[in-house]
Amino acid sequence: MSKICILGNSVAAPRTEKEAPLAGWGQYLGEFLGEGHEVRNYARDAMTLRSYFGKRFTTLLNLLSPGDLVLIAFGHDEQRVNQLNRYHAPREYQEYLRLYVEAIKSAGAVPVLVTPAARCSFDEAGNVVDTHGGYTELTREAAAETGAALLDMAAFTTSMLTELGSTRARRMYRWLDPGEHPNHPDGIIDARHFGELGAREVARRTAAALREIPGLPGDLVDQLLLTPGESPEPLTEFSVSHPEAALDILPTLPDRPVFTSPDPGQFVGAQREFAGKAPAGTDYVLFYEEGRYLGGTAVSASGTWQWRRVAVWPDGPHRVEALAVTGNAVSRRSELEFEVIERLAAPRIVSPEPDAWTGSRPGFSGRASLGTSKVMVLEQGRVIAEAPVKRDGTWQVTHAHDWRPGTHTVEFVAVFGAVRSASASRTLRVRGIPEDSWLHTSLESRETCSGACEHYPAMPTW
Fold first, then answer.
1. How many helices and strands, by DSSP H and E, does the chain display?
2. Are 172 and 36 in the same domain?
3. What does pTM read for this prediction?
4. Hey, CA dihedral for 181, 183, 186, 191, is it positive or negative?
5. What is the domain count for the chain?
6. Does residue 112 share a domain with residue 64?
7. I want to staple 352 with a disulfide (CB 3.0 to 4.6 A). Which of 152, 291, 322, 356 is the partner?
8. Is the bond leading into 185 cis (omega within 30 degrees of zero)?
9. Which residues face 424 on adjacent strands?
10. Other C-beta atoms within 10 Å of 406: how many?
11. Domain span holding position 321
12. Which residues lie below 8 Å from residue 263, measured CB to CB, with a gap of 6+?
């Protein structure tokens, strides 16, 4: 029996009944295979190429047999430059993919690189938004460079969302209004992970894509099992009859809904979630901007609600109005003003000055544009430090390790959530003891000591 092994993160990972309706596409792939082929799903939450490469990967290599298929499905988290433990620079990302491919081929198995699945995000014109920041294309390039097969999940999930449109696409994800599922009585907004319906459809399309890859067994996928499922119904928020008419009804409900998040005047990302409370017994909350209906959400039994637009917010200031509906009665309106940040200016570097000499523990400081939450420090594209931005726009950080003497170029990127700026760079010169200096070589018989060591002589702290 041949194996199809899945390496990846939470989008593919198998789920239990207690986690329903959350589902990973990998748990349904076996439903579409022919006899004599089995799926082994090794995808797990919070995995990146870097974190998986180690004990988990070597364990897999020891289980492989010649002819097995290995789907390598990453690219969701590696793009997050604002997260030290997850970000992979483009070169690092492709280097890891190359190492995976080489190791799997050496075991006699067949590597397949999988581009990341699309998230449920549309622009105001109804087009699916690519939220992976170029990592889809990096995966395609790696497949071409290594000769590995490519399964373009980004392409066929984007097609799936385009076919459904923004009024129905949300039903493929774990994105629920209050009361829709017993495991989430207050609702949940998750535009990344699939629900059971979406995971099964993505698995079906994955199987169909496998049939098109040259060289794979002809009986790998059972063609008779690839019949498309039923298309989901439009979401309630898009089937409300004449929602703008509610603005003209005389308010009769005594209380209106309130926003609890975000705070008034706050900077937010283009896909920000909103939360609040509504009077007991409220059926629905409707949202408007400049008299235009944006969508709505049901209210939980506890009187809470949460809502996010399927379409991303345009950059700049916004004012949203909300009103509660119970039967044919409406409430007065509540307002919330906020500003969406879609672009950031590169940070300004104050210290060190260009080509300045520094000690072996260089410190960096500067200023950032309004809305920046932190500045990431990178060397050769890899994140090495982060600096929170203060209210006055200043930032500073001292690197935690000694730097070797010489000339080094460092990059700085301003971030706010998933928004990142272009990089600014600074070249500095580190003054220290050269590696071939007698001060080093005279102590080669011992392990390296630090400046705080009690032995003598210890290396000075420069």
1. 7, 24
2. yes
3. 0.92
4. negative
5. 3
6. yes
7. 356
8. no
9. 412
10. 12
11. 236-340
12. none
